[in-house]
């Protein structure tokens, strides 16, 4: 018999989608990770039921690390030098990568381009899809010009269909791409594809078999409404590298962010431009997000922001206008709106300005999203520029954190930001604790230097 469960009664249990903890009863809050409304009902074998493995993975034995051979496990290139750099040295045989992103953001396009580039290096690549048929995959590969005899494809929703190609380490593919892990189901787990039990089982089995075969595994994962990877957190701990592809589907650019990396630096960032033949790398994204800005208008400022290890010049826009509402509006796009509320309170207290009768709108230009504290000073400058209706100097750039006392504090990457600002020819450079940049200590100093007020 090929059944996967021996005698054992099936019972229901609740599993936390955040940490994977189990509970016999539904609770509003997980007792382990304290997440709210994260318990989902799954069917599981009762205690004592034994699961028979699908296939033998061979004996496991311990051995001295000094005797372990690493020949044949050297990283190989992705076909894109910049991607190799942010991953460490490229793709490591036997490693697992997880890439997440919103639907339609370009995950499948990027991975098919990656598959074609690796196939052209005389390596076998298997692209497994549970979302598209083979004709659909071929049509997209033809449009991207990545068709190659070494690029194999399979359309299936059963993870067991992928196991035969991993049994022989001599013929196993160098790279396997699974698009996506939520669309595959395992016969050894209960429930429909995408539930917690299925995702955990599918990912675990694929990672284990690919590690033994020396195949690099790339898993595509769905994301939730707030942009985090869907499914149990086990997925992020199970893989070696976690990558996020971000951006607005209505914009042309995409940001590839490395969130976790066992083989290289994390928090690295690459910028891609969506073109007809797929995603094209932006070689120098330093001023990519500025666009065609008009420096003669008030309410705009440029911040030298840091994302990972890379500095970007990004435009911050603000509009302060008279309000006809009982409660004035406060709107922020591209950053946490609580930051806007905090800075407005600081300006009212320390500069004695009255924003109580003004609607305030602020956004990060180019569709980018910033979370770093260095944004504060540029946001304050843009707010004051709109409030006074006085434009900033044409080549002015700013960065720094503003605390609740109106003091301007230094932020990380000071030297990197300064070098990039000087290379791009910005002047004046306004940031804290740097005599070469007209160092300013408080928001009152900023007001006096830029607007001759106070």
What's the gist of this structure?
The chain is α/β, with parallel strands linked by helices and 454 residues long.
Characterization of the model:
22% of the residues lie in helices and 24% in strands. The chain contains nine helices and 20 strands. It has 454 residues and is an alpha/beta fold. The strands form five sheets. A nine-stranded mixed sheet has the order 6-5-7-8-4-9-10-11-12, sandwiched between helices. A four-stranded mixed sheet has the order 13-14-16-15. It has a three-stranded antiparallel sheet with strand order 2-1-3, with no helix packed on it.
Shape: elongated
Q: What class, by secondary structure content?
A: alpha/beta
What's the alpha carbon Rg, rounded to whole Å? Answer: 26 Å
How is the biggest beta sheet arranged? 9 strands, mixed
Order of helices and strands: EEEHEHEHEEHEHEEEEEEEHEHEEEHEH
If you average the pLDDT, what whole number results?
Answer: 86
Q: β content, as a range?
A: 15-25%
Number of helices: 9
Distance linking N and C termini: 86 Å
The helix content is 10-25%
């Amino acid at each position: 018999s090929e059944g996967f469960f021996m005698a054992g009664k099936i019972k229901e249990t609740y599993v936390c989608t955040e940490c994977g903890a189990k509970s016999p009863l539904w609770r509003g809050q997980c007792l382990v990770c304290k997440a709210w409304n994260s318990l989902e009902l799954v069917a599981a074998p009762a205690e004592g039921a034994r699961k028979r493995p699908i296939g033998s993975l061979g004996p496991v034995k311990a051995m001295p690390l000094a005797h372990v051979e690493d020949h044949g496990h050297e990283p190989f290139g992705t076909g894109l030098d910049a991607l190799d750099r942010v991953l460490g040295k490229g793709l490591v045989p036997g490693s697992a990568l997880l890439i997440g992103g919103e639907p339609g953001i370009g995950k499948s396009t990027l991975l098919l381009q990656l598959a074609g580039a690796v196939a052209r290096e005389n390596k076998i690549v298997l692209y497994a899809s549970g979302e598209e048929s083979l004709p659909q995959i071929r049509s997209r590969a033809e449009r991207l010009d990545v068709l190659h005899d070494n690029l194999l494809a399979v359309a299936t929703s059963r993870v067991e269909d992928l196991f035969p190609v991993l049994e022989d380490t001599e013929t196993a593919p160098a790279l396997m791409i699974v698009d996506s892990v939520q669309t595959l189901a395992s016969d050894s787990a209960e429930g429909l594809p995408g539930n917690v039990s299925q995702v955990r089982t599918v990912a675990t089995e694929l990672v284990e078999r690919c590690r033994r075969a020396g195949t690099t595994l790339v898993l595509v994962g769905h994301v939730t409404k707030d942009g985090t990877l869907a499914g149990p957190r086990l997925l992020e701990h199970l893989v070696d590298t976690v990558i996020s592809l971000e951006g607005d589907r209505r914009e042309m650019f995409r940001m590839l962010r490395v969130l976790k990396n066992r083989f290289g630096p994390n928090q690295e960032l690459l910028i891609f431009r969506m073109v007809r033949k797929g995603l094209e790398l932006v070689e120098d994204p330093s001023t990519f997000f500025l666009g065609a800005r008009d420096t003669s208008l008030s309410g705009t400022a440029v911040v030298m922001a840091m994302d990972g290890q890379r500095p970007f010049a990004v435009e911050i826009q603000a509009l302060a206008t008279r309000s006809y509402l009982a409660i004035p509006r406060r709107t922020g796009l591209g950053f946490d709106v609580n930051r806007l509320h905090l800075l407005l309170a600081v300006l009212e207290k320390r500069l004695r300005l009255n924003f109580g009768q003004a609607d305030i709108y602020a956004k990060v230009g180019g569709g980018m999203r910033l979370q770093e504290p260095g944004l504060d000073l540029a946001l304050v400058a843009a707010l004051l520029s709109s409030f006074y209706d006085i434009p900033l100097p044409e080549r002015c750039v700013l960065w720094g954190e503003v605390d609740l006392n109106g003091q301007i504090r230094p932020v990380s990457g000071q030297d990197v930001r300064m070098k990039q600002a000087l290379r791009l020819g910005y002047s004046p450079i306004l940031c804290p604790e740097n005599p070469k940049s007209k160092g300013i200590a408080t928001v009152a100093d900023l007001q006096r230097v830029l607007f001759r007020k106070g």
